[in-house]
Amino acid sequence: MTSTDDVTESKILLAEYDRLKEEQKTRIGFRDNLLYFTLAAATAIVAISAQSGQPQLLLSIPAICLILGWTYLVNDEKISAIGCYVRDRLGPRLGELTSAHGAVFGWEIYHRNVAGRTVRKRLQTAVDLFAYLVLPMVCTTAFWCSPVVQPLLLLASLVQTFALAGGLFTGFHQPAL
Fold first, then answer.
1. DSSP for the chain?
2. Per residue in 5-30, pLDDT tens?
3. What pTM, to 2 d.p., does this model score?
């Protein structure tokens, strides 16, 4: 029953749209779970550090936040890129093929203009900054204030601090629009 007559550019574009939205949905779930996992891991490490009296364990939190924070950013960038591609390329091309009046995949545009979006994006940025920058810096500072600061651990904490600062200037502060 399948023939080349059944395959049209419109069908191919719709199939591409379905796959992209599935990837976007998966990435959103993964990205959101990264935040929960980061907070759970940090909480567990703080508890273990406090219970064991080993403040040097706090230095694992910046490393965890750096790794998970970059993973979060990569997924967030891909989620935004998919939305941009659908809005700017896929939708208009499908609109041309179908002679549609108005935007194809209107949700991709509509949801970006709803009331309160800017406030929500700023709040999300604040949460991201807390989880991936403030929290690790608080743990690093707590380590610095502890009596167990050793030269090698101090060096490691400084490297982590510079890596966190680099993250701040290269992407942690950029909300996905």
1. ---TTT--HHHHHHHHHHHHHHHHHHHHHHHHHHHHHHHHHHHHHHHHHHHHT-GGGGGHHHHHHHHHHHHHHHHHHHHHHHHHHIIIIIHHHHHHHHT-SS-TTTHHHHGGGSTTHHHHHHHHHHHHHIIIIIHHHHHHHHHHTSTT--HHHHHHHHHHHHHHHHHIIIIIT----
2. 577 888 999 999 999 999 999 999 99
3. 0.81
Question: Which residues of the chain fall short of a pLDDT of 50?
Answer: 1, 173, 175-177
3-state secondary structure 120-168: HHHHHHHHHHHHHHHHHHHHHHHHHCCCCCCHHHHHHHHHHHHHHHHHH
61 within 8 A of 45, measured Cβ to Cβ = yes
Burial 88-101 (b: 16+ CB within 10 A, else e): eebbeebeeeeeee
Q: Which residue, among 5, 4, 2, 14, has the nearest Cα to 97 in the 3D structure?
A: 14
Q: Which residue has the tokens 């960038």?
A: 77
